[in-house]
Amino acid sequence: MNFQVTVLKILVSYPDGFAAMADLKRDMAILATSGRDWADRTKRLAARVPALDIFSQHLVERENGGWKITVKGRTVLEFMEARTAVVPPTETVPAENRDAPIPPLRQPPERARRRRERRERRREGRERARANAS
After folding, report:
1. How do residues 76-97 score in pLDDT, each as one tens digit?
2. What spans are recorded as compositionally biased (Basic and acidic residues) (predicted)?
């Protein structure tokens, strides 16, 4: 998890961009334990601004027992979150093929086996429930 990106994201979520230290610590703890998704997301965002330093770049200010995001901090965060403007070209499909059904993607054998096992367990569970209800 990238600490500095997380601080920016937390501060921007508060109405006036100010959070007391206790609130910051609580929110950081929640995000730190939320799983790999948040850590991966902050790494991707941080990669857009490799030399990020929220205090020396004046993106965050220390105020009265808490931290406040600056206008510059909001701008940098918007830049990090901005999607690239390049849209990949789409392939044109001839009119006669537009209504043709799309074949399903092949699944790896392991995934197909796990899906089959889940279906079987659900079916067995339904059968047990019906037997117990009778």
Report:
1. 988 888 865 444 555 555 555 5
2. 122-134
